[in-house]
Design goal:
Number of domains: 1
Number of helices: 2
Distance between the termini: 19 Å
Structural class: mainly alpha
Number of strands: 0
Order of helices and strands: HH
Radius of gyration: 18 Å
Strand content: under 5%
Shape: elongated
Helix content: over 70%
Length: 75
């Protein structure tokens, strides 16, 4: 049951991030001023870097839990 709720939370968090990123891209595309365009571009790259880092961290933590589970053994 915990795995199901964690999976749901991860999916909903990803949906929120993708939605906000989409909002930033739409505002960037509709904005004509250069300063705001540069700021939105930087924010988009920062958001993408955070998403990639979180994905990598999640994979590393999952691998760590699998190693611990294998070391302990199943009952």
């Amino acid at each position: 049951m915990a795995m199901s709720s964690e999976g749901t939370m991860i999916r909903s968090a990803r949906q929120v991030i993708v939605r906000r990123l989409g909002d930033c891209v739409r505002r960037f595309a509709s904005d004509c001023s250069a300063a705001n365009a540069i700021e939105y571009a930087l924010l988009t790259f920062i958001a993408a870097a955070i998403i990639v880092a979180a994905s990598q961290l999640g994979g590393a933590v999952t691998g760590l839990y699998v190693q611990v589970q294998n070391a302990i053994g199943s009952p």
